[in-house]
UniProtKB/TrEMBL annotation, chain A:
UniProt name for this protein: Protein EFR3 homolog cmp44E
SUPFAM superfamilies for this protein: ARM repeat
Residue ranges, annotated region (Disordered): 719-741
Family classification: Belongs to the EFR3 family.
The organism of origin for this protein: Loxostege sticticalis (Beet webworm moth)
InterPro entries: ARM-like, ARM-type_fold, EFR3-like_ARM, EFR3_Homologs
Pfam families attached to this UniProt entry: EFR3_ARM (PF21052)
UniProtKB/TrEMBL annotation, chain B:
Listed name of the protein: Ras-related protein Rab-30
Origin species: Loxostege sticticalis
Pfam families in UniProt: Ras
Family: Belongs to the small GTPase superfamily. Rab family.
E.C. no: 3.6.5.2
Magnesium recorded as keyword: yes
Compartments in which it is found: Cytoplasmic vesicle, Autophagosome membrane; Golgi apparatus, cis-Golgi network; Golgi apparatus, trans-Golgi network membrane; Lysosome
InterPro entries found in the cross-reference section: P-loop_NTPase, Rab, Small_GTP-bd, Small_GTPase
Cofactor field: Mg(2+)
Lipid bilayer topology: Lipid-anchor
Length: 842, 202
C-alpha cells in the first residue's frame, strides 16, 4: 500500500500510484518502480524492511546499511531523512510494524555512528522520535522514549548548540500525567515520561550551552511531574541513598523511578540551580495541599537533603524556612494557614539535622536567625487559644534543637549566645505579656540547644559574655522564666548526669548514687573568675518575693550541681559562705513568706548535707547530721521535702525562734579545720548583700573580695527595711506580709533602681579593666591570634545584632502593647557592644 | 508526512469541566468522547490542517482545569502562539472566573499571544450566559470570541481553522512576535529539532 512497499509488492501497484500521486511531493524521492535509478542509500534503506512487518528488521541488509553509512558518513543525513519520511508515511497509514522497524534501524545507526559524524544524523533521529511521540498510540510513544533515552546516554564530543529540547520536556511531562483508562498502559506511559525526562536531564545538565535545563520553564514542568508520580506511592519509604536501595522494581514503578530521577536532578544541581528545583517543589506542595498531613513532604525533603551536594544542603533549609509563612491556596482561612505553617515547620525539623553537619559559619547563624525570627513573628500573632500556633512554635524549637544537635560544640555556644542576646530583658520596667512569652519561648529554644551541648570545661560552656547574659535573665520578673533559666544552667553544669537525682532537696544523698569527680584546674580558674557572679545571682534569686516552689527547688539543683562539679578544698569555703548567707537571709529578708523562709532553711540544710558527699568532711557530716536529727524531732518544717504551704506555725516554731537549729558559722569552721581545710575565708564577711559591697568594685576576684571584707558587713545583709529577728514572733498573719505598711520589697527597690545590679556592674567593670589591660599590654600578634578565629562569625553576629536593635522586637501593629517594649530597647546599650566589648576596643 | 509549512502551538485553558478536552477530541479525532474524565496535568494532541493550500501543523496542549495542577499548566502558557480560554455557557461560575484566568495569562503567557474566548456547550438548554455577555467580555479584553458545542460539533472546526488562518497571516506579515533569545525559546527554531515553528519551512 505504501510508496515504500511497491518495490517489493508489484501486485499493489494501484495503491502505490495512488499514494505517489497524492503524497509524494518530494522531488528527490524518485519513483519506486525504476529502482535502478534510485540512489544507493535509498535502496539500502528500502532493503532493511521485510515484506511483512512481523518478520522484523532484515538483519543482513541492516548490516549493509550500517557498513555503507560508516564508509560514507556524508550520506548519514540523507539516510536519516529518508528513514524519517518512510516512517512518517507509515504512521499516517497506521502501519506501526514498519514504524517500529524504522525506529530500530535508526537506533542501530545512531549507535554505530562515530561521534564526529553523529550530528549529521541526530536531527532526523530526533525528528523521528518527536514524530512518534506526537502519535496517539501509547506503543509508539513508549518506543520513541526508549530511543530517546538511548540517544541521551550517548556522550557527544561536540554537542549541537542549536538543538533544543523544549518539545521533549513538554511532552514527557504530559506523559508523566497520563490518564489512560487502562491502568497498566497508564503506568507504562508515565514510566516512559519519567525516563524521557531523565534522558533530557542527562543530555543537557552537564553542558549549560546546549540547553539550560534549570530554567523555570523546564523545571516548572519536570519537578511537578516527578512529584506527582512520587506522591502516588502507596507508602513512602525514605532511604538515604538509592544505590544501597535493595527494594526491587525501581524500573517498573513510576513513584520509584520518579524518586530516582529527582535524586539525580537534585544531585546534579549546582548552587545557582538549587532554587530552580526548590521553588516548583514548594509550589507543588502548596497547590496539591501536601503539607497537612506532611508525611509526603517529609519524605520528599529528606530525599532532597540526601541527594543534594552536601555543601548546598543549607540552602534547602533556607528555602523551606523562607516558605514557612508563605500563603498557600487556602490562605484565607487563618486556622488552616497556621496548621500549614506548623506542618512546614515540622518538615523543617525533620531535615534540619541533615543540613547541620555540613553548614558552616554565617550560614548556621542565618538559619538560627531565621528560625528565631519566625518564632518572634509567631509570638507576635499568638492568641491564647491557638493550639496550632503552639504546635508551630514547638516545631520551630524542635527544629532549632535538631539543628544544633548536629553542630560542633563550639558552634552551639555561639548559637546559645545568639539566642540569649535576643531574649528581651524584663527585670527593669514592666514587661508586656508578649515579652514574657517571647522570653519563655527563646529560653525554651536555648534549653533545647543547651541539652545538646556536652560540657567538658566550664569555661568553654560559659564564655564570659554568655554567662553574664544568662545571669541577667536569671533576675527576670516572671517566675516561670527564672525557673527555665535554672534548667538551662542545670543542663550546662551537669557533666555527670546528676541533675535528675537532685531535682528536689534532700538530706539523704547516700542512696542517690551521685557521680562525683574532683574538679580540674581550669574549673578552679573559672570559678575564681566567675564564681561570685554566679553565686551572687543565685543568692539574689532565692530572695525574691515572687518565687514559687519550682524556683527555689531549681536554684537548689543549680547549687547542688555546683557543689558537685566544683568539689574541691579551694571552693568549699565559698560554697559554705553562700549557704550561710542564704540561711541568714531566710531569717532576715522581710519579703519572704513563712513558707519561703522554711523552704530556704530546708535548702540550706540539704546543701550542707551534700558537701560531705563530695569531699571528705567527716566532722561536717557529723555536725549536720546532728542538726538534721534535732530538726526532724523539733522542727521538721525546716527539712526537706519542700512544701508549697506550711501549716500555721506557732511563734516558737518560727525559724527565727530556733537559733540552736541553725547552722553555726563557727562550728562549721571548726569542722573544716578538723578535716584540714583552710577555713579563714569562711570567717571573713559574707559578700552577699544588696548594695553593701560597692567598695569591692575593682577587686580582682570575689574570693579576695570576700576575704578582705570586714565581718561587720554581715549585718549589711539585713540592712535596710528589716525586721528584728526577735520581733518576728507576732501573729503569723502579720508575719506573712511584715512590710505591708511600708511595702518596699527588695525586689521593688531593685526594679526601681533600674540599672544593672551592683554585682553586675562590678563584674563588668572588672572585666573591662582586665580586658583593657590585656589589650594594652599584650603584643599585637597575640591580640590578632585571640581575636582572629572568631572574627567572621562575630562579624555576622554584629550585623544581625545591628538589625535587631534597629527593628522593634515586635511589630508596632502587634496585638500586645509594644510601647514599653520599644522603649526598653532604646534604653539599652546596643546589644553587640554589651556582648562583644572586645570588638570595640580596637 | 512532514511537509507542513507552519507549526503553531495552541493551549486550552479554563475551569474544570467546561469541555476543553471534548473540544480537542472533537477537532482532532472527530468524536465526542462519552464519560470524558478530568484531565490530569496536561494532554497533547496534534493535527495538521490546510490553509490556502498550505499545511499548518497545530500542536494542541490541553490543560487540566483543576486548581492543583495550576502551576504545571501555567508553565505551558509561555510557548503558546494561541490561547483558547473556555467557559461553559450553562455555568455562570466558569464565566465569573475569566478575570482570574486573564490575570494568569497576563502573568505567564507572551503578551502578543493570540487570545480566543470560547463559550462552550451551546447545545445545552439551560444557558446562563447570554451570547452578547460573552461577546462584550471578549471585546473589552481584546479577544476573539466564538460559541461552540463540542457535542454537536458546532463551530469547533471553525475555531481551530480561524486560529490557524490568523496565526498564518500574522506569520506571513512577520507580525508574529519575534521571540528573541532573551525571552527564551518560543518559536519553532528554538524549541526542538524538526519544529519549524511559525516560520516558513525552507
Ligand atoms: N452538553 C455538552 N456537554 C459537553 C460539551 N463539552 C463537554 N461536555 C461535557 O462536559 C464534561 C466535561 O468535559 P471535559 O472536556 O472533560 O472538560 P475539561 O474542560 O477538559 O475539564 P478538565 O479536564 O477537568 O479541565 C463532560 O461530561 C462532557 O461530556 C458540550 O459541548 N455540550
Ligand atoms: Mg480535560
Amino acid at each position: 500500500m505504501s510508496f515504500v512497499k511497491c518495490c517489493f509488492e508489484s501486485g499493489e501497484g494501484h495503491d502505490f500510484l495512488d499514494s505517489f500521486v497524492q503524497k509524494c511531493t518530494d522531488p528527490g524521492c524518485c519513483c519506486g518502480c525504476c529502482s535502478a535509478l534510485r540512489p544507493r542509500y535509498k535502496r539500502l534503506v528500502d532493503n532493511i524492511f521485510p515484506a511483512s512487518p512481523q518478520d522484523g528488521l532484515v538483519k543482513s541488509n541492516m548490516e549493509k546499511l550500517t557498513f555503507y553509512s560508516l564508509s560514507s558518513p556524508e550520506k548519514l543525513d540523507r539516510i536519516g531523512e529518508y528513514l524519517f519520511q518512510k516512517a512518517s508515511r507509515d504512521i499516517y497509514r497506521r502501519r506501526h510494524g514498519f514504524v517500529i522497524i524504522a525506529m530500530e534501524a535508526m537506533d542501530q545507526l545512531l549507535l554505530a555512528c562515530h561521534s564526529q559524524t553523529l550530528n549529521l544524523f541526530v536531527e532526523s533521529f530526533l525528528k523521528m522520535v518527536q514524530k512518534l511521540l506526537e502519535s496517539t498510540d501509547p506503543q509508539l510513544q513508549i518506543l520513541a522514549t526508549q530511543s530517546f533515552v538511548r540517544f541521551a546516554n550517548i556522550e557527544e564530543d561536540t554537542p549541537s548548540y542549536h538543538r533544543r529540547y523544549d518539545f521533549f520536556v513538554s511532552k514527557f511531562s504530559a506523559m508523566c500525567h497520563s490518564n489512560h483508562s487502562d491502568a497498566a498502559t497508564r503506568d507504562k506511559i508515565r514510566l516512559a515520561g519519567i525516563q524521557g525526562l531523565q534522558g533530557v536531564i542527562r543530555k543537557t545538565v552537564s553542558d549549560d550551552l546546549v540547553e539550560n535545563i534549570w530554567e523555570a520553564q523546564h523545571m516548572d514542568k519536570i519537578v511537578p511531574s516527578l512529584l506527582y508520580n512520587m506522591q502516588t506511592a502507596e507508602k513512602y519509604e525514605t532511604v538515604s541513598c538509592m544505590e544501597t536501595d535493595t527494594r526491587d522494581g525501581a524500573e517498573e514503578s513510576p513513584p520509584r523511578l520518579a524518586e530516582a530521577c529527582l535524586r539525580e536532578l537534585v544531585g546534579r544541581a549546582s548552587f545557582g540551580h538549587i532554587r530552580s528545583v526548590l521553588r516548583p517543589v514548594l509550589t507543588h506542595f502548596d497547590r496539591h495541599e501536601l503539607w497537612v498531613p506532611n508525611d509526603f513532604a517529609v519524605h520528599t525533603f529528606k530525599i532532597i537533603m540526601f541527594s543534594i551536594q552536601a555543601q548546598y544542603s543549607y540552602s534547602v533549609v533556607e528555602a523551606l524556612m523562607q516558605h514557612l509563612d508563605a500563603a498557600g491556596p487556602g490562605a484565607s482561612d487563618p486556622r488552616s494557614r497556621t496548621r500549614v505553617r506548623a506542618a512546614r515547620a515540622a518538615v523543617l525539623s525533620n531535615i534540619v539535622a541533615i543540613a547541620a553537619g555540613d553548614s558552616v559559619g554565617p550560614s548556621v547563624l542565618e538559619i538560627i536567625n531565621n528560625l528565631l525570627t519566625n518564632l518572634r513573628a509567631s509570638v507576635a500573632r499568638d492568641s491564647e487559644k491557638e493550639t496550632d500556633e503552639k504546635l508551630y512554635q514547638e516545631a520551630l524549637i524542635n527544629a532549632l534543637g535538631e539543628f544544633a544537635d548536629h553542630l560542633p560544640d563550639f558552634q552551639k555556644i555561639d548559637i546559645m549566645m545568639f539566642i540569649i542576646s535576643k531574649v528581651p530583658s524584663s527585670q527593669r520596667g514592666k514587661s508586656t505579656k508578649a515579652d514574657a512569652m517571647l522570653q519563655t519561648i527563646l529560653l525554651k529554644s536555648l534549653l533545647k540547644v543547651g541539652t545538646t551541648y556536652k560540657t567538658t570545661e566550664l569555661s568553654k560552656a560559659f564564655p564570659a559574655a554568655f554567662l553574664e547574659a544568662l545571669l541577667r535573665v536569671s533576675g527576670a520578673s516572671e517566675p516561670g522564666t527564672r525557673a527555665l533559666l535554672q534548667r538551662i544552667l542545670h543542663t550546662l553544669l551537669d557533666r555527670h548526669s546528676n541533675a535528675p537525682l537532685l531535682h528536689t532537696p534532700t538530706v539523704d544523698y547516700a542512696e542517690l548514687g551521685l557521680t562525683v569527680e574532683k574538679c580540674s584546674r581550669q574549673d578552679l580558674i573559672f570559678v575564681s573568675k566567675h564564681g561570685y557572679a554566679i553565686f551572687s545571682s543565685l543568692y539574689d534569686g532565692l530572695q525574691l518575693e515572687s518565687n514559687t516552689l519550682e524556683n527555689v527547688e531549681a536554684i537548689y539543683t543549680t547549687l547542688a550541681l555546683l557543689c558537685i562539679e566544683l568539689a574541691s578544698e579551694e571552693t568549699v569555703c565559698d560554697i559554705l559562705q553562700l549557704i550561710l548567707a542564704v540561711q541568714q537571709s531566710a531569717l532576715s529578708n522581710p519579703v519572704l513568706s513563712v513558707a519561703g523562709q522554711c523552704q530556704l532553711q530546708a535548702v540550706v540544710v540539704s546543701l550542707t548535707a551534700l558537701l560531705p558527699h563530695v569531699m571528705p568532711l567527716m566532722k561536717l557530716d557529723d555536725y549536720i547530721r546532728k542538726i538534721i536529727d534535732s530538726r526532724s524531732s523539733e522542727a521538721p518544717h525546716l527539712l526537706p521535702p519542700l512544701r508549697r504551704e506550711y501549716p500555721q506555725l506557732a511563734p516558737a516554731d518560727m525559724p527565727s525562734s530556733l537559733p540552736y537549729l541553725m547552722i553555726d558559722q563557727m562550728a562549721v569552721c571548726e569542722c573544716l579545720k578538723a578535716s584540714g581545710v583552710e577555713s579563714a575565708r569562711l570567717q571573713a564577711a559574707s559578700p552577699y548583700a544588696g548594695g553593701a559591697t560597692l567598695s569591692l568594685a575593682h577587686r580582682h576576684s570575689w574570693v579576695e573580695a570576700g576575704a578582705a571584707q570586714g565581718r561587720d558587713s554581715l549585718a549589711d545583709i539585713t540592712a535596710g527595711p528589716v525586721l528584728e529577728p526577735d520581733s518576728a514572733n507576732s501573729s503569723p498573719g502579720v508575719q506573712r506580709h511584715p512590710m505591708q505598711a511600708e511595702s518596699v520589697s527588695l525586689e521593688a527597690l531593685r526594679r526601681a533602681a533600674g540599672g544593672p545590679t551592683e554585682a553586675e556592674k562590678r563584674e563588668a567593670e572588672r572585666r573591662k579593666a582586665t580586658l583593657n589591660n590585656a589589650f594594652r599590654t599584650a603584643p599585637f600578634q597575640h591580640l590578632r591570634e585571640i581575636t582572629q578565629p572568631k572574627y567572621e562569625i562575630k562579624d555576622k553576629l554584629e550585623e544581625i545584632f545591628n538589625s535587631i536593635s534597629e527593628e522593634p522586637l515586635l511589630p508596632a501593629s502587634g496585638s500586645c502593647s509594644p510601647g514599653g517594649q520599644t522603649k526598653s530597647y532604646q534604653q539599652h546599650v546596643p546589644a553587640y557592644t554589651k556582648y562583644f566589648p572586645e570588638l570595640f576596643l580596637y | 508526512m512532514e511537509d507542513y509549512k507552519f507549526l503553531f502551538k495552541v493551549v486550552l485553558v479554563g475551569n474544570a469541566g467546561v469541555g476543553k478536552t471534548c473540544l480537542v477530541r472533537r477537532f482532532t479525532q472527530g468524536l465526542f468522547p462519552p464519560g470524558q474524565g478530568a484531565t490530569i496535568g496536561v494532554d497533547f494532541m496534534i493535527k495538521t490542517v490546510e490553509v490556502d493550500g498550505e499545511k499548518v501543523k497545530l500542536q494542541i496542549w490541553d490543560t487540566a482545569g483543576q486548581e492543583r495542577f495550576r502551576s504545571i499548566t501555567q508553565s505551558y502558557y509561555r510557548s503558546a502562539h494561541a490561547l483558547i480560554l473556555v467557559y461553559d455557557i450553562s455555568c455562570q461560575p466558569t464565566f465569573d472566573c475569566l478575570p482570574d484566568w486573564l490575570r494568569e495569562i497576563e502573568e505567564y503567557a507572551n503578551n502578543k499571544v493570540l487570545r480566543i474566548l470560547v463559550g462552550n456547550k451551546t447545545d445545552r438548554e439551560d444557558r446562563e450566559i447570554p451570547r452578547h455577555i460573552g461577546e462584550d467580555f471578549a471585546q473589552r479584553h481584546g479577544m476573539y470570541f466564538l460559541e461552540t458545542s463540542a457535542k454537536e460539533a458546532e463551530n469547533v472546526e471553525r475555531l481551530f481553522m480561524e486560529i490557524a488562518v490568523e496565526l498564518m497571516e500574522q506569520a506571513k506579515c512577520k507580525e508574529l512576535p519575534k521571540y528573541d533569545g532573551s525571552l527564551g525559546p518560543i518559536n519553532g527554531k528554538t524549541t526542538s529539532v524538526g519544529d519549524s515553528g511559525c516560520c516558513l519551512r525552507s
